[in-house]
Design brief:
The complex is a heterodimer of chains A (139) and B (98). Chain A is an alpha+beta fold and 139 residues long. Chain A contains four helices and seven strands. Chain A has one domain. The radius of gyration of chain A is 19 Å and the shape is elongated. With 98 residues, chain B is α/β, with parallel strands linked by helices. The chains are: A alpha+beta (139), B alpha/beta (98). Chains A and B meet through helix 1, strand 1, helix 2, strand 5 and helix 3 of A and strand 1, helix 1 and strand 5 of B.
């Protein structure tokens, strides 16, 4: 990862800008939402692969900063929603696509199904993924 | 499947708050299927969007808007060995790829 940052630095002009956007494991909230209602039904379970990936990414960027390659100028978190019509669609997607990212406990699945079934006709389910965005200036 | 990713478009809102893209030469590392690329590339001077995954790049090529054909170049490349000369880009975006 540090070598990738070195490569990015090489192809950037002097004073060039690096934008790093990435999800951070943080037990992402699972929610049922409609135009009238909102309910958090549980939290996704962080998986070890994602936690380890976060650690490796953080170490790489700290390393690049300590080498004087980049200076951190701005940093913020924002929510990135994955949203589905039904709980079963969410469960299927997570089981197939998020095998190294996050999982759902049986309690959270049951609470989400129940809240959705009892919710408004336009209820959807979603996962609120925590995203970090950072602007770095090439030194 | 009725999956919607980022229906509130927070990612592009924050990207535009963090960097001025107008007329800039942009390199996106880890473009995947181009989900973010197609949202910002129209404002750039030019964009090179790269990924290592051939399947994702094929989808990106199919999905590339006609209006961006001359502006966005898609390429398969490894971030550890970028196939570009030095100081070629004004902005680099690591899109969920660090």
């Amino acid at each position: 990862m540090v070598h990738a940052l070195e490569e990015v630095r090489r192809v950037l002009v002097p004073d060039g800008i690096l934008i790093d956007i990435r999800p951070l494991a943080d037990r992402w909230p699972v929610e049922v939402i409609s135009t009238r209602e909102f309910k958090e039904t549980g939290r996704a379970d962080d998986l070890l692969d994602q936690v380890n990936a976060d650690v490796a990414s953080n170490e790489a960027i700290v390393d690049a900063e300590s080498r004087g390659w980049f200076r951190r100028e701005q940093e913020e978190f924002f929510p990135f929603f994955y949203s589905w019509d039904t709980p079963s669609e969410m469960e299927k997607y997570l089981a197939e696509e998020w095998t190294d990212l996050a999982g759902l406990s049986e309690n959270t699945k049951a609470a989400t199904r129940s809240a959705w079934a009892l919710g408004d006709a336009d209820s959807r389910v979603r996962v609120r993924v925590k995203i970090l965005i950072t602007r770095w200036k090439k030194l | 499947m009725t999956l919607q990713k980022d229906p509130e478009r927070n990612e592009i809102k924050y990207l535009r708050q963090f960097v001025h893209l107008a007329g800039k030469r942009v390199l996106e590392v880890g473009c995947g299927e181009g989900r973010l690329t197609w949202q910002y590339a129209k404002w750039t001077g030019s964009t090179v969007a790269m990924d290592l995954d051939h399947d994702s790049l094929r989808v990106a090529k199919v999905d590339r808007p006609y209006t961006l054909e001359d502006k966005v170049h898609l390429t398969c490349a490894d971030s550890h060995d970028l196939p570009f000369s030095k100081e070629k880009f004004d902005i680099a975006i690591l899109a969920w790829s660090l």
